[in-house]
Amino acid sequence: MKKNFTSFSFSVGARNTSPSYLFGPFLTMVLFSLLAACTNKEQTIDAADQHKTWSNYGGGNDQSKYTELSQINKSNVKDLEVAWFYPSGDNKIYQFNPIVVDTVMYVLAKNNSLVALNAKTGEEIWIHANLSRIARRGINYWESEDGTDKRLLFQINNYLQAIDATTGKSILTFGDNGLVDLRQGLDRDPKTLSRAQSGTPGQIFEDLILLGTGTGESYLSTPGFLRAYNVKTGELAWTFHTIPRPGEYGYDTWPKDAYKYVGGVNVWGEITVDAKNGIAFYPLGSPTFDYYGADRIGSNLFGNSLLALDAKTGKRIWHFQTVHHDIWDYDLTSAPQLLTVNHEGQEIEAVAVVGKNGLVYVFNRHTGEPLFPIEEKPVPPSHVEGEEAWPTQPIPTVIPPTTRQEVTEADLSEIFLTEEERADWARRLKDSIQTGMFTPLSDKFETLAMPGAVGGVNWGNTAADPDKGILYIISLDYPSVYDKLLTLEQIEAKTANIGSFFGNARSYIQNCAACHGQQAEGLVGPALSNISERMSIKDFTNIIVSGQGDMPAFTDLTTKQIEDLFEFLSEDGASRFSSQFGGGDDGTPEGPVVASGGAPGGLEDREVVGGSGRYGGPYPEGIEVDHERLYLYQWGLEFPYIISPPWSEIMAYDLNEGTVKWKRPLGEDLEALKMGYKNTGVLRAQRNGMIITATGLVFSTSKDGRVYAFDADNGEELWKSKLPKGSEGLPAMYEVDGKQYLAVPAATPIKFGRDGIPEEGEDPNAQGGYVIYTLPD
C-alpha cells in the first residue's frame, strides 16, 4: 500500500513550525528579509556585484549567467572579432567554464592543467599541471575580506583541494595536507565507493563551499548527500541526507532501511545560492537504479526535488518533488533561476527550475508555493513484477513545456529515415511500442519516452534576466527508445552469439555500445577505437571503475572483463578515439609550470574493494531483494534522428505571465542543410551555455560549432561566429581596463546527421581551446 504523500512541504527545523504556518506568507517574506540583513556584509556586497564579474562557475551565486556590462549592445554586436585564442594544447574534450578575477582568467587545458592567463592578452601566468580526474566543468574562487587570501577550490579524484590563486601552488594547510576525502561520511565503507565527486564545482557562500555528489547509476551506488565545507580549513560544516535516515523528514517515503542501500538522489548539476536571503537551491536527481525501483517502493524523497536549504546550516526550508518514484531518469540538473516577477499584481521573489522532462516549475522563493497551478495527474501503472509506479505525477497546467511530450507518426522524420524505415517506425508505434513521458518501462514491450533520458533541459541550459522575470532556456528533443527490461541472465543469453567485429567482447555490447556506438564509432560518448594509442590499461581501468565526466562507474566488471574490453578496443577500428576522459600524466606541458598533480597523494590510486555494480550485489544483511528480478536496460540513446526537427531550441519564458515569449531553433544540422532543410537545430545537442546582457542580448553556444547572439526581446539572430571546434562548457563575459570580452570554450568534436559525421572539410585533429571576442578599438 502506498503512503500518503505531498509534493510541497515547508519547514524550519521541526514539522508544523514553519514561518508560513505561524505568520502567513507576507510576514514570512519580511522575516526572511530581516534575517538576511543580519548575514555577512561582505557576502551581501558580493551578491550585489555578481552581475559585473564572472568570478565563479555560472557567473555568480545566482547562476543567472546575466551581466550588467553594457559596452556590447544590439547595434555593435555584429562587429565582434577575435581578440585572442588560447589553444588547449591537446585533443581532450574540455567542458570548462572560464572564470575571471580582476585581470586573470583561469582555464583548464594542456592535459587537464589549471592555467592562469592574462585576461587581456592570453599570456600564461602560471600552470598547475596534470590534474587528471579533476571535475570537468569548473572551479570555485574565494578570497578573504582583506584580499590577502585568494583560493581556487576544486574536486579531483574524489578529493576537495585548494590552490593559491596567485601562485598556483597547492594550499597544504587545507584539509589533511591539502586533501579533503569526499568518500568519507557517506554512510558507506569509503573503500567500497568508487565515485563521490560531482562534475560541477558547487557554489561559494560566505566561507563555505557547497557541494553535490557524483554517484553513478548502479544498484547500491553512492548516496548523494549534500555537504558544505569550510573554504579555509576544509572542515565539514554540515551534511543533508538526501536519502533520509530514521526519524528524518521523508523517511516514510521509502522502504524500511532504504538509506542503507539506495544510491543517487544527488546533485550532479548546478547549485544556486540566493546570497541575500541565505538560501541554497539544489536540483536533485533520481534514486538508483534509474529505471527499476522494486527495491525502493514509495515516492522517494528527496529524489527529483527542488530543495531549498539554509545555506549556513543545511536545514531544510522547503522542497517540491517534480517526479515521484522516478523510473525514467528525469533528473533535475539545470541551475534553478532566481527572478523577481509581477504575479497577480504583487512583486514576488521567485525561483524557477526546469527538468529533463521539459516541464517548467515556478515557486515563491521563500515559501515554496507554486505561482502557477501544478496538478497531480494520473499516469500509467507498471506491469513489471515487483515494480509499483507512483499513480500520479505533478504536471504544470499553465506554463507550456519546453519539448514535445510524445512521439506520434506525424513526428517521424523524412530527413534521415528511408521510406521503408519510416513505415517500420510507424508500425512499431502502432503495434509494439509503449509511448508517453510517464509510461513505465516494460519487460514485454519496447518503450519510447519523449523527451527521454538526455532530452529536455540539462546543465548549463538555463539563464535569466532576474529583474524582468524572463527565463531563458535551451531545450533538446531527444527520444529514448528503450528495449525491454532484461535481467542479467537474459542479457547474457541475448549477446552470446554476437557478430565477428565484437568477438568475445560481450561486455562492450552490454555496457558501452549505447553511448559509444555499435562499432565504437561514438554516439553520445566519444569514439573508442584504437584506445591503446591514447591511454594505458591503468588509466582505462581507473575510468571504468571510477567513472568520469558524464560516464557512470561500472564497478561490477571483473579485472579480466576490463582487460578484455581494453584489448578489444585496442584493435584496428574505423574511428579515431577522442579522449573525453583525460587519462593520466602525459608529461609536463610547456610553459610556466609551478606545480604538478595537486596536493601530495591526491592522485594516488585507491583500491575499491567492494561496490555492488550495475547488476546488483550484496545488499545489507536483513534486506530482502529478489536478485533475479533486478532488471537492466539498454539506454535507448541510438535513435535521435527518427523525429522531425527542430531538435534543439532556445527560448524565452515570461514568468510574469507564465507564457512563452519566443522560441527558435538553435543551430543548423549541416547534413540536413545539404538536403535542403533549414532551421533544424542540432541532433545530440546537449551541453550548451548562455549569457544574458543588460543591453538586451542573448549569447549562446550551439553544437553546430558556432556561437550566436540573439535579440533578447524577440529571438532575432544578430551575430554568429564559427569556432575552431564545438563547445560544451559555459561561456563567460568580463571587463578589463574598460573593455568588454566574451570568452567561449571550444574543444569538442562536432558531429552532424544521422551518423554523427564531422563537418565537411574539417580537420578532426584541429586544435581546440578558448576563443576570446571583443569589439574593435
TrEMBL record:
Essential cofactor(s): pyrroloquinoline quinone
Coiled-coil parts of chain: none
Region of interest (Disordered), ranges: 581-606
Family matches, as SUPFAM superfamilies: Cytochrome c (SSF46626), Quinoprotein alcohol dehydrogenase-like (SSF50998)
Record domain Cytochrome c: where: 493-573
Pfam families: Cytochrome_CBB3, PQQ
Keywords: Heme, Iron, Metal-binding, Oxidoreductase, Signal
Superkingdom to which the source organism belongs: Bacteria
Family membership noted in the UniProt record: Belongs to the bacterial PQQ dehydrogenase family.
Protein name according to UniProt: PQQ-binding-like beta-propeller repeat protein
Organism: Flagellimonas iocasae
